[in-house]
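Methods: example folding runs. The two proteins below were folded one after another, and each record is reproduced exactly as written to the output file, sequence line first and structure-token line second.
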Amino acid sequence: MEEFSPKIIAFCCQYCAYAAGDLAGSMRLQYASNIRVVLVPCSGRVDAIHLLRAIEDGADGVYVAGCLEGGCHFVKGNFIAKKRVRFVKKLLTKLGIEEERLEMFNLSSADGPRFAEIANEMTERIKAVGPSPLRRDGKAGSGTG
């Protein structure tokens, strides 16, 4: 039986999280290759519908990575994102989907090693939870399509 390789979407703000990912690459740090990064101008621009749509479309895990608290380039964007992530986690639980599939992280542009840690941490977490029930590639239970 082949090992489960989770599909994980990472919404990363351009100023801190994406820059940290770029730094991780420049430092040649090894991290899980199953992370798909979506560049956003600010983590506060990630709406609940984006998180839900990623899960609906078969992502096994999703995370939002924004600036450090108090260090957002758009002042409150990361606080808005954190609030939305909390809301969607509650909604996922009500829908019977594990809330562990969604997370929020804060990092600075100098946190290349932390970016790699987060990618690996989320990959291990999702491997423990298992495939999303909404996956459409036949590797999980009740997906459609």
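Second run, written to the same file directly after the first:
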Amino acid sequence: MELNIDYVRKQFPSLSGDWVFFENAGGTQVLQSTALRIGDYLINTNVQLGASYEVSQRAGERVDEGIRGMGEYINASDKSEIILGSSTSMLFRLLSMSMGEFFKAGDEVIVTNCDHEANIGPWRTFEKKGITVKEWKINRETFDLEIEELGKLMTEKTRFVALTHTSNVLGTINGIKKIASFVHERGAWIGVDGVAYAPHRLPDVQDLDVDFYAFSFYKVYGPHYSILYGKKEHLERLPGVNHFFLEKEIPYKFQPGHVNFELTYGLLGLKDYLIGLASVHSNGEKIVSFRKGAEIAFDLIAKHEEKLSKRLLEFLNCKRSVRIIGKTEWGREVRVPTVSFVVKGKSADEIPLEVEKHKIAIRSGDFYARRLIDYLGLSEQGGVIRVSMVHYNTLEEVDRLIGILDELL
């Protein structure tokens, strides 16, 4: 079944303008349903929670509905496993503050050299506490994180392994379920950055069996807000970062200042959208389950995005001046439609400046994966050029970009 792209684009008011957005890995356009829910909350229930009067009770119910909805979305086992905060960077930083008090000198943690700094920097601070930090490096030729190399790094002292589900530069989908099993067999925890994965695929934290998983909703068609999942048993053991009298309350002990009320309720705009998208493609069947609707919708999304990847990668593969930084194949099981490349003899920032003259937004840089860019020897030329597509993009938009790039490359 083909994705009904006309239906999709009507749900994003900003797409009615002149610009083509191919910088979606930096932040997607926002759903109308999300904006409406946020506005509704602010207009009708903008009060403090926990009071006995009716409006406060209604506000609390709305916030709770948002939290429960996001738990269902990622298939958490309990709403207490859902921590919400301003950004993935902040949530990992708060988690590291907690873990830093829990781990001891002599323990070991492992980070990669291909993650966004949000999932590297917080754990590297452990070195100040006498905790050893090791680096799992990608293969420079294949751009893969090889599990055999992880095995060489892990010891009986390894407590935690941090990695990305999908690199925001390479676009490669890592086999998190297999890696999580490997890590758990050796007695350690695993923490996964899902920011570059979540706009394209549906996370299932129970199936993946991860200990921690985070991503940002402003890159999944929603507001500037983020989620951190943690297994309940771990969150109960870890020290909190909130007031002392909240030490036993999860997830509140990891949420200083509480959640943002209107944004938490606004997250349900994603539920509205995915159920609606699934229903449009279900031959009259009424879809009511958030999780089922999301599964149907993301299957359609993956199929459509594979076509976008194929169109762009086929073009780039034919250009002798271009080196793709990541997998050159486009299969939906292999990568998401985040495509990075460099051009022989050109600084990375030259191409986006020319492309944007045609009202097409792409970008260059290191995208906060500076360790990866340095490791690949791409810093001097300004990093990479990145075209990051999502399902609301069309083949016609890709062809428009290709027509411009064909004259520049």
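Comment on the second run: Residues 31 and 388 are 18 Å apart (CA to CA).
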